[in-house]
Design brief:
With about 325 residues, the protein is an alpha/beta fold. It has a single domain (about 1-15, about 30-310), classed as Metallo-beta-lactamase, Chain A (4-Layer Sandwich), CATH 3.60.15. Helices cover about 20% and strands about 20% of the residues. It is built from eight helices and 14 strands. The chain has a seven-stranded mixed beta sheet with strand order 6-5-4-3-2-1-14, with helices on one face. Strands 7-8-9-10-11-12-13 form a seven-stranded mixed beta sheet, covered by helices on one side. The longest helix is centred in the last third of the chain and has 14 residues, at about 280-295. The N and C termini lie far apart (about 50 Å). About 50% of the residues are buried.
Length: about 325
């Protein structure tokens, strides 16, 4: 039993960690900060965007498993935004509506003036939090959204198949959700792949390790940010299909794993990984290491927590 309760270490993968951005850039550049789970902060120095925006990370897996009510913590969110150097965001974009992705998104929008840009379920989180209507927009898949030099396209996708079916009954949040509520009240809603087009390069964020066959065939991306949460228990054939339909489909030259940190604990370095009893994330990372080694021109990269990393520039 001990090996299942143990916490895997990030140490075997340290060689893949990206270097933090040097101080004082002298030319245009596009940067990213990894803020845990699938929360990413993108900036080109003029415009900043964030996926998900999850900072509260309610403590204790037992608390979550027992269904004890949770809610966004405004002070923790404020401290997280400050630590990431965020004062203003153009948009915060939950890529699906589970609590570890979207719970804090409305408060992030409130504190930063961002548009909450996501599904109808995510919009109902904003409405339940009292976010002004002017800061809530339900996306139309395939439609480009322009923020500064960023062009965003949301593409319908799927959630990774769950080992335990927590998606009971409705999978949408059909009315404004007013926290505190049990974690399972944060229904998945629509799941998206997010394509980010910028003059410096193109990116794809896959916030869950699910996919729709052929959905990304018309898109290209230099870098893919790929969730590995829940991937370990799936068969090899599924993992191969995910790689083909997401990473290979867009012609990526860089692959960045996400969603392997223990999101019931504060985010810190060295990263705390999800306990093995819940998800063997090291086996998922090993799979991506193997695939990158076998794919000419594809580089695997891990992001350090909180640090700004240059993507292009």
């Amino acid at each position: 039993m001990g090996k299942f309760l143990s916490r895997a270490s990030i140490e075997p993968y340290r060689q893949y960690l990206a270097e933090p951005a040097p101080e004082g850039a002298g030319k245009p550049r596009l940067t990213v900060r990894f803020l845990g789970v699938t929360t990413l902060l993108f900036s080109d120095g003029e415009t900043s965007l964030m996926t998900d925006g999850f900072f509260t990370r309610p403590g204790g897996l037992l608390k979550i498993a027992l269904g004890r009510k949770i809610r966004p913590d405004g002070d923790l969110i404020q401290r997280g935004l400050h630590s990431a150097g965020v004062e203003h965001l153009a948009a915060v974009m939950p890529l699906h509506s589970h609590y570890d992705h979207a719970m804090d998104s409305p408060e992030v929008a409130r504190q930063t003036g961002a548009i909450l840009l996501g599904s109808e379920s995510s919009a109902n989180l904003g409405r339940g939090w009292g976010l002004p209507k002017s800061q809530i927009e339900v996306v139309i898949p395939g439609k480009p959204y322009q923020f500064g030099d960023f062009s965003l396209t949301f593409i319908e996708s799927r959630h990774v198949p769950m080992r335990v079916n927590i998606l009971r009954g409705r999978t949408e949040i059909v009315e404004p959700l007013v926290p505190p509520v049990p974690p399972l009240d944060y229904k998945v809603g629509q799941v998206y792949s997010l394509h980010i087009k910028h003059p410096l390069g193109n990116l794809l964020v896959q916030g869950s390790a699910g996919f729709l066959p052929g959905a990304l065939a018309s898109f290209s991306a230099d870098v893919v940010y790929l969730s590995v949460g829940g991937l370990a228990h799936l068969e090899r054939a599924y993992k191969e299909a995910l790689f083909k339909e997401v990473v290979a489909a867009v012609g990526a030259s860089r692959l960045v794993p996400l969603h392997y940190d223990n999101f019931s604990r504060p985010l810190q370095e060295p990263l705390r990984l999800i306990p093995k009893i819940l998800d063997d994330v090291c086996s998922s990372l090993d799979f991506l290491v193997e695939k990158a080694a076998a794919q000419p021109g594809l580089v695997l990269q891990l992001l350090p927590a909180w640090e700004e990393v240059v993507i292009f520039g």
